[in-house]
Amino acid sequence: MKKQWRWLPAALAFVAVLAAALLLYRNLSARYAPGAETAPAASEENTVTVPASAAPDEDLAADFTVFDENGAEVRLSDRFGKPLVVNFWASWCGPCCSELPAFDAACRQYAGKVDFMMVNLTDGYSETVESVKAFIAESGYTFPVYYDTNQDAARTYSVYSIPLSVFIRADGTVLDAHIGAMDDTTLQGYLAQLLA
Question: What is the C-alpha separation between 45 and 179, in angstroms, rounded?
């Protein structure tokens, strides 16, 4: 009879771990889930629809505020007037890191013609301003990094998967958006459209 009940402690431990995992999943899902009414809808593979602002021109890119390397506020709308590429990324994201060299090269190639906003999802835990600055310095990247420390940009664009790149015309209207890592050829194709 005792042999039949030997599995009981292991089974109870398994059920306890499973319950804890479910509770943690629900809590984290509720905390990090994008708003249901602003979640982007996929328009085709690897592209997303980004929300428009409440401005009279419904095609204007939704505005947000991030911070530069000195802690100064930078608004997206302040950058209108020149074609603009906004890339949402994090240093712990493998696909993000795979496309950063292409963005760095494009930033140098199109200097003065296209602005780049490399928006780091700086949550203060897995990604801090200090750790990102160290990552950029170690990697030798020269593109401008902006820190989304208050998650305004991530909330505004319902960022649920990274990397996410948004291509904005000089007049502030959204040309297109791409979710997932891009190679140099794909990035150059979007840049050619921006400058056409």
Answer: 9
